[in-house]
Amino acid sequence: MRPLHKRHRRGVMSEINVVPYIDVMLVLLVIFMITTPLLTQGVKINLPKASAKAITARKQEPVVVSVDAHGLYYLNIDTHPNQPIAPDRLATRIAAEVILDKEQHITRPILIKGDKSVDYGKVVQAMVLLQKSGVQNVGLMTDPGQMQTQVHTKAG
Question: Does pTM surpass 0.70?
């Protein structure tokens, strides 16, 4: 029998308390859930409404030429996608991308996203620039409410 007057010593606890780690992970999860929708890059464009079927998702990021309400061009794959790009530089950059895509045997969609209040001539000029750059197919982006869709057109 054990004597009652001796104290029983506890050994060193070797378990890790994971509750603080779970708390930190939950806080990070909430932060990422809040900030992710705010990270969309691009230029604010009011797309015209249309009822068209959405294009199926592809592995390659599409090349998007945006035309804002003032008729300025933007390119989503440019080093500064939020700054306007000159038409001649746009044509040169698109031509280089077309050549690069042909060398890599990929077909990346090329889309035009025009603001609904922009002059239609500016969108046509963008299509002409793309055609001169060697683009065979051009898609036009529309907004049928909440979901974006693209309408394909043949460029030549």
Answer: no
